[in-house]
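Give me structure tokens for this 103-residue protein.
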Amino acid sequence: MEKRAVMASFDGGAITSDAGALLLRETDLLLRLSERVAQCFTDGRDQTRVDHAIQTLVAQRIHGIALGYEDLNDHDDLRHDPVLALHSTTLEMRARKVAPLAG
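Here you go.
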């Protein structure tokens, strides 16, 4: 009988409890809600120093509220959530230390 090694990891890996955010994202894209709300803002930031587009910030806030994260202090942890990161307009940030979403 051949012996096989069994390995287990209990660190959870990249998981989310907000899978409903995928439906929310697709609905938002269909309705162009975040895009249209973002157009109401004038971005006066120095664009060479910007990591997160206005549309990403607006989508993050709207979707956060819809998912029950009305407090902004939640976003510091949520910015690393793999599903919520799909709300970002760009998944590849200029600096490696920058998360896909704002914190």
